Amino acid sequence: MSKYLDERYSALAAYVPGEQPQDKKYIKLNTNESPYPPSQETLDAVNVGETELLRLYPDPDGRILTKKIADLYGVESKNVFLANGSDDILNFAFMAYCANGRKVYFADITYGFYSVFANLHNSDYTVIPLEADFSIDAEKFCGVDGCVFIANPNAPTGLALSLKEIERIVKSNPESVVVIDEAYVDFGAESAVNLVKNYDNLLVVQTFSKSRSMAGARLGFAIGNEEIINDLHKLRYSTNPYNINRLTLAAGSATIDSQKYYDENCKKIIETREYTKNELEKTGFFVLPSKANFIFASSKSIDGGELYLKLKEKGVLIRHFTTERIKNFNRITIGTPEEMKIFIDKVKEIMEEN
Ligand SMILES: *Cc1c(COP(=O)(O)O)cnc(C)c1O
Predict the structure, then answer these.
(1) CATH architecture of the domain formed by 7-37+260-353
(2) From ligand 1's centre to the CA of 143, what distance in Å?
(3) Is 209 in the pocket of ligand 1 (CB under 6 A)?
(4) What is the pTM of this model?
(5) Which CATH class name applies to 47-258?
(6) Burial 174-210 (b: 16+ CB within 10 A, else e)
(7) What pLDDT does 22 receive?
């Protein structure tokens, strides 16, 4: 840290992304990426012609892609906001609705970026503990006096709230924005997108990183009331109007055109998730019921950190968090059936060696 850094940032603990090691080839089950490649249409969209156009700025409003997303979700273009990954949207939402001493509420065990953004923007934040079984008690998020951020399904637990419970939370906080982060919604949870028509304070955030095989392209979108979307545009135009590059816009449009391919991939991932959960349970693991493309598991016979390290030695990467409450768990991204078979075999080897 230099002596020049603004002192309000000197104590900031930055977000730590999952490791992306370059030393050898791992079976990568640690950052919730899709194991399947983008569709042929998506690949074809990033072509020489599009690359030649890189000399020109992209459309700062990404109008073609915005319209396609609006049509897919049954809303208007004015209800859709695009950004460079959904983290970018979460950042704008913190900036817009809960910065500089304004209040915000999120769970103790949830997406790690919420507390980073809260600190970055100097929010007055309150952490609401999950229940003993890691579920969210919707009641505890009702009628709070500030903004709410909920990942649904939640990460890293994979547990989902019903649409009814989400609606209760949104309805009970009419004076504050409620952000529902649906990064994993395509793997079996209920989306709150249709509630946007009825509630001015709801912002639904989604991403192309998980179910649409585009983590490397950086593309996220949000759906909300026109006024909220305009707040976000104002901040975006005050930061970086060209926040989505041309190739990503082209790839994103082709991805929406080949939605069927991605729906099929989600189906496969859900099947592989249930297979993996069953196999782990047979090996004595406790596995939370997941609606995401990962599972969250622990075993009484092996420490979470130890399992993570031993799997890494055997070439399989999973995600271990050192947070006290979940330090015996690991989050395991669902890969291809072949990858998960190897994962299960390695886990069995480790348990036998133990
Ligand atoms: C992965 C993830 C994001 C971020 O996704 P990007 O679009 O890649 O920035 C946001 N929220 C949750 C809960 C996630 O797991």
Answers:
(1) Alpha-Beta Complex (3.90)
(2) 26
(3) yes
(4) 0.97
(5) alpha beta
(6) eebbbbbbbbbbbbbbbbbbebbeebebbbbbbbbbb
(7) 83
